[in-house]
Structures are given as structure tokens and as C-alpha cells.
Design brief:
InterPro entries: PGF_pre_PGF, PQQ_b-propeller_rpt, PQQ_rpt_dom, Quinoprotein_ADH-like_sf, WD40/YVTN_repeat-like_dom_sf. This protein has 2 helices and 53 strands. With 729 residues, it is mostly beta strands. Strands 35-38-39-45-41-42 form a 6-stranded antiparallel sheet, with no helix packed on it. It has a 5-stranded mixed sheet with strand order 1-26-27-28-29, with no helix packed on it. It has a 5-stranded antiparallel sheet with strand order 36-37-40-44-43, with no helix packed on it.
Length: 729
């Protein structure tokens, strides 16, 4: 490549990265092989559905294929790829579920070896010992090779124009014996090397991790092997049962590499962590831990110092350093799948979402939330439907706000709750946090689609006597949480927040300075009311970068709700302990959910009235100052319009201050400093007293009594001595 072409390429790459940054969301990543990559991490930065994707008119789809699906799908670009038990291979549009192409391989029955993508080809191992390569875009067969007379049951690991996999020889009682691991060139299906098992164990689901120059995999005789990836020569091999002193039995999980350690499970019921030097390819048996979790074939996923792993009847969370337990989530059926994890919503709080399936007659898919310091799993949502989700053996793939998985009842699912844009070509294109132009929100609330900037849903349980909380993490959503006390049992209910360009379709214009327009909905229209819920609060944020802190009066930032055909100010308080360098947080009280507006006021100007008359030799002047903040009982300013009346409140006081630097203490009569309230179309002086014990070098403090809230001003009288000759001044 010449210098000019290099510069063009660099500019093109930079432009792509710049577009990704400007979009406000991560560019969608591929899930191109088992557990996403060659180290089987199972971790992605892509978003995924964190509230029920089956609620309302969601974008989720299902597609019944020709036979059972017992492997996890892979995702590359706009297509999902999967193979079925009747030797069919499918490429499916990831947003519509429509079949783009299909072709046939060979063999039939339970296809257990996961497919992989590389060099624009899909690699499909089969039950009758062959490997096929199909053009990823067209489905045209590029080559097929007979590898073995045995089943190819391991996931295919792709790296740098090569694929790695093993075969399984049935040895009775479900055991596999005398297996071989292979390396093939993807260009034409040429074998580069093969290595026979030295332990006598075969390779059944035992996928390899590739780190540095080494390939690491386990077998059915509890051996762990490290070989040179280019030659297949053995670098290190251990009998895990001997090293750990337990009956390991078959190792049928793939190996996961994470931070110089290897993680895996076994049918003997253990999860293991073992040190590994990826520079030398050697195992560090002095750095090793194991814990009993129950029989497992699940490949662990490691994130933020935690291990997520499935076993018989549970998904467990363990400390990554020593595998001590943190929490266990019990389910009906076995978790044979390998958990997939989205770290998209981790903003330093450890928020992650874990997705897994259960292999059971009543198979389910689950989404769990975990975070720093958590000791109990949080079920975000789950889905199961008889006849469709029965026997979900394999796990999920995550890409760009979607999850994909298949079942033994022939169904492939694409699940999401993202907003989608219909462009002029009619194709749906994802937009996780907003878009320009007209948006077709299939999760419809009735709001004008072109008015919606950002859209987020959350789901939670409503149980009598318990606090219900919805949390939101989309950075373009200014609502951070909603909570209330449920007065009735209503099970799972969805909350929807829409951030708007302008006033809601359901509201009128508001005569205030508006920071943000938005809608909040709980359940169907009319569902959220005082009969079903009490003590409703909404927490929201204001970004400092979007306001002028020198002119915006923070004490006036208020959440307003449109009901009874008018805008009503809600009781709003600032959450001062949560403020950070970028954000101010607030909490407001409401009795229901409809259109909302976050409003604010600017600081009022300080004015001094001119002398109004001369009484003898004295000039009476009025000093007038509008309250602008830094006073007590701030919360009363946020009360609903007309709410603070003598029928609802009594003994109301306002404390305020006067800065000595702003008055002339020699002629201002401190006893005349008074708080005045405007009501009944006139200014009324309030009973005001000086708080002498609080005075300091800079400030005088006062307390006034009032019967309500409306505009206020502070006034004072000043005395000025003048000479006779200046009487007419």
C-alpha cells in the first residue's frame, strides 16, 4: 500500500470512528462465533433488551424453521446465521426475521457443534464428520471436506484464516473417547495439523480458547491441553482431577481466557480457575481454585471480577479471584447454556445484564441484572411459551440491542425493545437513543413519532405492599428512576419514557422556560392512578452543559405535569448529595403519569427604588430585592400551584437573608426589613422578625410568616439627613 492510499485509508477509518462517536451509541458489533470471540468471553459492549421485549407491539420476531435448533446463533452485519438438525443452514435478516438464504450441509439429528464466521464465510461442522464453508452473503457453497467418521461436536474457533475444532467418538454411557483436534485453512479446507487425544478422551462441546500463540481445550477424561496454534505441538497438559484433587469427570464447557487465568466447568459439578501464562503456553497449577456448583457444561462469562455460570437448576455468580459464592438464581430445569453479558449500561456502577436459557420441558429465557455490591440477582424479565421455547439447550447471541436464540421446537427468536426508524427505502434501522427524522415506534404510546427524540422502557413487578421501582440508563433519557408503593397486585408492568422535541401531543403549551419535554407512561392508558399506587416519585437529571449556571436559578427547576387540562407544578427537590461535575439530580412527587415538562427560571434582577417623598428633613427610600436563593424551606417553592392554602398547611415560615454589602447600614432601618407577598392582586407585608442570634459579619437573617406561596419581595426603609438648602432635592 503506497503512502497516498494509506492516508486515504486512515482518513476513511477515522471518519467511521467519528460517525460512531457522533451517533451517541456504540457501533453494532458482531457475535461471529461461539460466545462472541476466540477467547469465548461472552461479553459485549452492545446494548440488549433490559425490559420485557414481548410487551405491547414490540419489534421482536419469531421464525419457525425446518428442524430443531441446538446451537447458539451467530450475528455478522445485518444477518443472523443458524444451523438446524436436518442439515439446513440459514441466513436471516436480524431485524425482520425474514430468511435471506438457506442451503444444506449433511448429516441429521442433534447438531451440537457451533458454527463460526471468518473471511466472509460461514463454517458449519456436521454430525457425520464434515465441514462446510458457505459464502456469508449469498449462501453459495465454497467447499466441503470430510474430516472424520465421527461427530464434530465442538464449537468452531476461527482465527486468522484458520479454524480449530475437535471430534467426538462415542464411548458408552455418554462418554467420548479417542478424539482428535484439528486445524484447517479456510481458503480451501486444507488440513494444517491434527492432534490425537493423549488422555483417551474425546471432545464433546469442548471448545478451545485461543490466546497468544496457543490453543487451550479440555476433554472427556478431565485433561486440559495447551498446544501451539501453528503446529499442534503440545506445550502443556494436566490431569485436572489430579491437580485439584476432585472427580472432575468430563470437561464439556469451552475454555475462557481472562486476565492470565482460564475458567471452565465440568460434569463432575465444579467450576475451575487456573493460572495461565499466554507467553509460554504453560499452566500455573499454584494459582488454582475450584468450587462445587452442580453438574455443568456451561461456559462461564467473566466481568468486573465476577464469574457468571450455569449448572443443574441454577445460574451462579462467583468471585473471579477464588470462586467464592456471591449469589445463586434458581430455575426450573438445567442451565446448559453459556451466559451472555451486556456491559453497555455500566457507568462505573457495575451494571450488567446477563442472558441465559433453560433446557427444560418448560424452557425459558431470562435477563438478570447485577451491579456492584449486589448479593441478590434481579430478574429484569423472562419469557417462556409452551410449544415454542421448550428445551432451550444453547445460549444467546447479542448484537445492537437484540438477542437471538433458538429452541429444540424449531423456533428462532429475535428479541428487542429498541426504537426503530422507517426510512424512505422501507427498511428498519435501529436507533437506541434517538434519531433524526420521522420515527415509527412500534411500541406505540400514541405520541407523534416525529416528536420523539429518545425512547426507553423498563419493566418491574407491582405487588401489594411493596415498593415498585423502574430504573433507566439511556444517557439520552433525562428520567433516571420512577418508584411508588403498589396498592394492588398487578404483576409485571412496563414503564415507558419518551423524550420529546417539543410539547407532547397530549398537552398544551406551557408559559414557562422549558428544559425538556417528555411523556411517562405506566401500563396502558389510565392504568396509573391513586387507586393502584401511592407515594409516586420521579427522579430526573439536568445536565450542567445544557444550562447556564450563572443565570438559571436551580431552586426553580421543577417537574410539571399536564392534567385537568392544565399544567401543574409538582413538589420538586434537588438531591444535593448526588450532584457530580456534570449533572444535577432532582426528585418530584406526582399522582399519575401523563405529559411532563422540566421547567426553570432565571435569576431576577436586583432593583433599588428611587426616593418617593420627602417628609420634613428626612428622605424615605425603599430598598427592594427579589428572593434569589440560599434560604431555608426551599421545598415550599416547588409545591403545586394553589396547593399551599390554610386548609392544607399552617405555621408556614420563610427564612431569608440580607447581605450587609448590599445595603447602607448607616441609614437603612433594620427593623423595617420586611418580606412582602403578592396575593389578592396586591402586595401584603408579612410578619417579619430578625434572627439576631444568627447574624454574622456579612449577613443578617430574618424569618417571616405566610399563609401561602406566590411572588415575594424584600423591602426596607432608609433615612437620609439633608441640609435646608437641599430640601427640594
Amino acid at each position: 500500500m503506497n503512502k497516498k492510499n494509506k492516508n486515504v485509508f486512515a482518513f476513511f477509518l477515522s471518519a467511521i470512528l467519528f460517525i460512531c462517536i457522533l451517533s451517541g451509541i456504540a457501533c453494532a458489533s458482531d457475535w461471529s462465533q461461539f460466545q462472541k470471540d476466540k477467547i469465548n468471553s461472552g461479553i459485549t459492549k452492545d446494548e440488549a433488551p433490559i425490559s420485557d421485549p414481548m410487551t405491547g407491539s414490540s419489534l421482536s420476531w419469531e421464525r419457525k424453521l425446518s428442524s430443531n435448533i441446538d446451537i447458539a446463533p451467530i450475528v455478522v452485519g445485518d444477518l443472523v446465521y443458524v444451523a438446524t438438525g436436518d442439515n439446513k443452514v440459514y441466513a436471516i435478516d436480524k431485524e425482520t426475521g425474514n430468511i435471506t438464504w438457506e442451503n444444506s450441509s449433511s448429516g441429521s439429528g442433534f447438531l451440537l457443534a457451533n458454527i463460526a464466521y471468518g473471511k466472509n464465510m460461514i463454517f458449519v461442522p456436521t454430525k457425520n464428520g464434515k465441514v462446510y464453508a458457505f459464502d456469508a452473503k449469498t449462501g453459495v457453497e465454497m467447499w466441503d471436506v470430510k474430516i472424520s467418521s465421527n461427530q464434530l461436536n465442538t464449537p468452531v474457533t476461527y482465527d486468522n484464516k484458520r479454524i480449530f475444532f475437535g471430534d467426538a467418538v462415542s464411548g458408552g454411557t455418554g462418554s467420548s473417547t479417542d478424539g482428535t483436534y484439528y486445524c484447517f485453512d479456510v481458503k480451501d479446507g486444507t488440513e494444517l495439523w491434527s492432534r490425537d487425544s493423549t488422555s483417551g478422551g474425546g471432545y464433546y462441546w469442548a471448545g478451545a480458547a485461543l490466546k497468544g500463540d496457543y490453543l487451550i481445550y479440555g476433554d472427556d477424561r478431565s485433561h486440559l491441553t495447551s498446544v501451539e496454534k501453528d503446529t499442534g505441538n503440545t506445550t502443556d497438559e494436566i490431569d485436572v482431577s489430579s491437580v485439584f484433587g476432585v472427580d472432575v469427570k468430563e470437561i464439556r464447557s469451552s475454555i475462557v481466557w481472562n486476565s492470565e487465568k482460564l475458567y471452565f466447568t465440568s460434569k463432575g459439578g465444579y467450576c475451575f480457575v487456573l493460572g495461565f501464562n499466554h507467553s509460554s503456553g504453560k499452566f500455573d497449577t499454584m494459582d488454582s481454585y475450584n468450587t462445587y456448583i452442580g453438574p455443568s457444561v456451561s461456559t462461564p462469562a467473566i466481568y468486573n471480577g465476577k464469574v457468571y455460570v450455569g449448572s443443574a437448576g441454577a445460574l451462579s455468580c462467583l468471585n473471579a479471584s477464588d470462586l467464592t459464592g456471591i449469589w445463586t438464581f434458581a430455575v426450573s430445569g438445567d442451565v446448559m447454556s453459556s451466559p451472555a453479558v451486556s456491559e453497555r449500561y455500566d457507568t462505573g456502577n457495575g451494571n450488567v445484564y446477563i442472558y441465559f436459557t433453560t433446557n427444560d420441558a418448560h424452557g425459558m429465557i431470562y435477563c438478570l441484572k447485577d451491579y456492584n455490591g449486589n448479593s441478590n440477582p434481579v430478574e429484569q424479565w423472562s419469557y417462556g411459551e409452551p410449544g415454542k421455547t421448550d428445551w432451550s439447550l444453547a445460549g444467546v447471541a447479542i448484537s445492537d440491542g437484540w438477542i437471538y436464540y433458538g429452541t429444540d421446537t424449531n423456533y428462532l427468536f429475535g428479541l428487542t425493545n429498541k426504537k426503530t426508524v422507517i426510512d424512505s427505502g422501507g427498511r428498519r434501522g435501529g436507533g437506541g437513543s434517538g434519531s433524526s427524522g420521522s420515527a415509527n415506534i412500534l411500541f406505540s404510546t400514541g405520541e407523534a413519532p416525529e416528536n420523539i427524540i429518545a425512547f426507553e422502557t423498563s419493566i418491574s413487578y407491582m405487588a401489594f405492599g411493596h415498593k415498585t421501582t423502574y430504573e433507566f440508563y439511556n444517557p439520552d433519557n433525562y428520567i433516571t428512576s420512577i418508584s411508588f408503593d403498589a396498592k394492588q397486585n398487578w404483576g409485571k408492568q412496563a414503564a415507558v419514557v419518551e423524550i420529546l422535541n417539543s410539547n407532547s401531543t397530549y398537552g398544551t403549551s406551557i408559559e414557562k422556560q422549558v428544559y425538556k419535554y417528555l411523556n411517562i407512561w405506566i401500563g396502558k392508558a389510565g392504568f396509573a392512578n391513586p387507586v393502584r399506587m401511592d407515594n409516586i416519585t420521579v427522579e430526573f437529571k439536568v445536565l450542567k452543559s445544557e444550562i447556564n449556571e450563572s443565570t438559571v436559578n436551580r431552586s426553580t427547576i421543577t417537574l410539571n405535569r399536564f392534567y385537568d387540562d392544565k399544567w401543574n407544578s409538582l413538589n420538586t427537590e434537588e438531591l444535593e448529595d448526588r450532584e457530580d461535575n456534570d449533572t444535577i439530580y432532582f426528585r418530584a412527587e406526582t399522582t399519575g403519569f401523563t405529559p411532563f415538562v422540566i421547567s426553570y427560571e432565571n435569576f431576577s434582577e436586583v432593583g433599588v427604588l428611587e426616593s418617593d417623598h420627602i417628609d420634613g428633613y428626612k428622605v424615605n427610600s425603599s430598598y427592594t430585592k427579589t428572593i434569589t436563593g440560599d434560604y431555608q424551606n426551599l421545598d415550599i417553592w416547588s409545591a403545586l400551584v394553589g396547593f399551599t392554602t390554610p386548609e392544607r398547611t399552617e405555621n408556614m415560615t420563610i427564612e431569608f437573608r440580607v447581605l450587609k454589602s448590599e445595603i447602607n447600614e448607616s441609614n437603612v432601618n433594620r427593623s423595617t426589613i420586611t418580606l412582602n407577598r403578592f396575593y389578592d392582586d396586591k402586595w401584603n407585608s408579612l410578619n417579619t422578625e430578625e434572627l439576631e442570634d444568627r447574624e454574622d459579619n456579612d449577613t443578617i437573617y430574618f424569618r417571616a410568616e405566610t399563609t401561602g406561596i406566590s411572588p415575594f419581595k424584600i423591602t426596607a426603609e432608609a433615612t437620609l439627613e439633608v441640609e435646608d438648602g437641599n430640601r427640594n432635592q
